[in-house]
């Protein structure tokens, strides 16, 4: 399988607990390469745009409030089958259902404060990466 890119966010619950390095260690141990990374404080508009697909959901307001509550680390990860691989490494959205050894099992606090985001398909990965990175910021 050709190398693929996926988009990742280390969320406010994790940056606040100083877990960026610990999460990156799990990512790298799984064989994914961090080819772009920056720490930002998302604006409300950025968070609303990023999660627009969820805007009719009852938790949308809570989700946006959370994502702007503290800094996040946005990343591009590269690897064979990177999208599916990272979803496996993250574990289930709700940490109560996440498998042993996954990022969410290890670190997430709840379904809302679940430490990381990862793209779910090639089309969304391309859109999400383009929202936060210029092509020349991704160095494989
Ligand atoms: P993420 O992969 O970033 O994509 C959408 C996010 O919505 C998801 O992770 C969760 O953090 C959040 N989410 C999903 N379900 C709920 C819920 N029931 N309550 C609060 N947040 C939720």
Strand tally: 4
**What is the mean pLDDT?**
98
Q: Report strand %.
A: 15-25%
Q: What would the principal axes of the Cα set say about the shape?
A: globular
Helix content: 25-40%
Termini separation: 17 Å
Sheet with the most strands: spatial strand order:
2-3-1-4
Architecture blueprint of SSEs:
Blueprint: E1 3-10, H1 12-16, H2 20-29, E2 33-40, H3 44-50, H4 60-67, E3 72-80, H5 82-90, H6 103-107, E4 116-118, H7 122-132
Antiparallel strand pairs: 1-3, 1-4, 2-3
The structure holds adenosine-3',5'-cyclic-monophosphate.
Could you describe the 3D structure shown?
By secondary structure, the chain is of the alpha+beta class. About 40% of the residues lie in helices and about 20% in strands. It has a four-stranded antiparallel beta sheet, with helices on both faces. The chain is globular. Bound molecules: adenosine-3',5'-cyclic-monophosphate. Adenosine-3',5'-cyclic-monophosphate (CMP) binds near residues 62, 111, 112 and 117.
């Amino acid at each position: 399988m050709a190398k693929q890119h996926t988009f990742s966010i280390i969320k406010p619950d994790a940056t606040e607990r100083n877990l960026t390095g610990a999460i990156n260690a799990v990512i790298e141990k799984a064989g994914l390469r961090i080819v772009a990374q920056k720490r930002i404080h998302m604006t409300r508009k950025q968070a609303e745009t990023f999660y627009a697909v969820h805007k009719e959901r009852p938790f949308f307001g809570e989700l946006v409030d959370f994502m702007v509550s503290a800094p996040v680390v946005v990343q591009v990860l590269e690897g064979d089958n990177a999208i599916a691989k990272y979803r496996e490494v993250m574990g289930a959205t709700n940490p109560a259902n996440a498998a042993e050894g996954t990022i969410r099992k290890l670190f997430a606090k709840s379904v809302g404060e679940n430490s990381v985001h990862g793209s779910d398909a090639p089309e969304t990965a391309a859109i999400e990466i383009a929202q936060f990175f210029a092509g020349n910021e991704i160095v494989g």
